[in-house]
Amino acid sequence: MDLVDGMRVFVASVETGSFSGAATRLGISPKLASKYMAELEARLGAQLLHRTTRRLGLTVAGEQLMAQVPDWLDQLDEMQNSLREARRGLSGTIRISAAVTHGEMVLAPLLRRFREPHPDLIIDLRLSDRFVDLAGEGIDLAIRIGRLDDSALVARKLGRTRLMLVAAPGYLARAGRPGSPDDLARHICIRDTNMRGDGAWPLFENEKPARVPVSGPFLVNSARVVRDLAIEGEGIALCPDYAVQASIETGRLEQVLPQACGPQLDIHAVHLPQRRMARRTRALLDFLARNLAASLSSAPEEGARD
């Protein structure tokens, strides 16, 4: 066992709370992670971790080592990366988590731009609308929209998105145009089940908040599909601006009740706080902070799904 590998397994085991979490982060098997840990303890002549059936805990010796090793590993990585990247640019793998529609329409094009000058860089983009455990799944950076619940994560605000009421011109010609939020009760509404709450739409009319009950035959857990159904004339939708702005500009959708917009939602990048960020991840975070806000209003329009 290489001493550096053993130290990496030790730090990853402490930060994730398990050998399986460390194995996922480092790309090795849990059995090998456990073996490296045992060999490190034998080499140092001290027990570093308490093993229980539920979680790993630090011994006194482990606490002393943990206070120094992460910075040492970071310095080693920085030195190695600086030498490599001076010749080849950024390298290694960045694991990124994002919501499906935002990831497909906004984040993926940005990641292509970011990676273009770095041929040795691997982007591992994992799209899911479920809550993702960053430590357990080895995620370097997660892009989250809306309220942040996990205060243990380090967050950096990247921009904002606004929810807009939209409908196809054909639907409005057929069903009429609502004059107030209360009128939505008599319209067919396409509901995005990713929105938190009781199913009512959170709207602001003249800066006064209200929750408006809506109904309709389509409940969908994808903002993109909600948009596509609205384009096909299936009803009124409440969608993020990045999903519908291009369709409004081409006339396939019209904004409904512009005086009664949905809430603005913050977009954050979040990451684990335990260690200094790798250079490649820090470079990506800075890139997103510079470019994401501008990209929200320029997401490309795609053809409606059949």
Automatic annotation (TrEMBL):
Keywords for this entry? DNA-binding, Transcription, Transcription regulation
Q: Which CDD domains is this protein grouped with?
A: PBP2_CrgA_like
Q: Name one Pfam family in it.
A: LysR_substrate
Q: Where is the HTH lysR-type domain?
A: 1-59
> Per its UniProt record, what PROSITE patterns does this chain match?
HTH_LYSR
- Which top-rank group of organisms is this from? Bacteria
Q: Is Transport set as a keyword in this record?
A: no
What is the similarity comment for this entry?
A: Belongs to the LysR transcriptional regulatory family.
This chain belongs to the protein called: LysR family transcriptional regulator
Native source organism of the sequence: Albidovulum sediminis
